[in-house]
Amino acid sequence: METSIQSLSSKVHDILQEAEKAIHASQSLDALDRERVHWLGRKGVLTEFLKGLGKLPPDQKPQVGKIVHTAKEKVETWLEACKLRLESEKRKIQLQQEKLDITLPGKSRKYGHLHPLTRVASEIVNVFVQMGFSVEEGPEIETDYYNFEALNIPKDHPARDMQDTLYLSKDLLLRTHTSPIQIHVMKERKPPLRVIAPGRVYRADDVDVSHSPMFHQVEGFYVDRDVSFAHLKYTLVHFAKRIFGEKTRLRFRPSFFPFTEPSAEVDIACSVCEGSGCRLCSGRGWLEILGAGMIHPNVFEAVGYDPSAFTGFAFGMGVERIAMLKYGIHDIRLFFENDMRFLEQF
How many CB atoms are closer than 10 A to CB 218? Predict the structure, then answer.
């Protein structure tokens, strides 16, 4: 019996030496897993030893079982230790490969910013908001009444030829200016009113350097008792100086608009030549920025105001026009082409 147990113990000892040598020689986790299966798997060397305990005499089973289980625990310990070593080495290699070189220049990220038209429209609105104007919006699809008739432009009026209107039906159209908002507001509220109304407008224009079928306008009006042309002039001079600079000079030229009387075109002195004449201003020394005037009594009657009790002024400007003058842009199409080389300049 002693000889048989000693023989088995010696054999297990030889197996352990071989297992220890093979396990510590493993150079990868995959190789280590193969060793685990070889020694401790379902058909592994030590597992087969345990299966063979059933053939031993009953009095030998406890001693041999203890020897084999002790051997199995040693193999498991070596496997775990080797696994930790290989995982540590793998992490070191990975960290070396993924090491951040802080001497390299960083990669700058491009941040979005406002479109030049959005920026200029916001600047325009902010100037008037700071003067006490409220901001109003209106529908882009209008009726003929709000877009024309209530603004003193009847169906047979020649001023309709100036509008190049896009009709959706006999009575519905895409608004040609933001002036209909003036009618909506005055029908709903009573004076005093100070309102600024930005928005998109549409006309059947061919696309070229200065025309687009869709563009942006800002309408403004002030209605109260004893409002005069002097109030209009002061408001627009303040606006121009805020947008184009304190040294900006203005001039008012007589003009015609059906919804204002008297009416005026407003120019600023060319910022490039300061009025002496250049390519930007076509040699005139002045650049047109907007139209304005005192609200026509017929408009007041259309909204139910007494023209003998109230007066008011109105003005309208194209946002694209202001942006082109402010930034020295010569082609309106640049605003709508989404060319990043152009947009990144703002």
Answer: 22
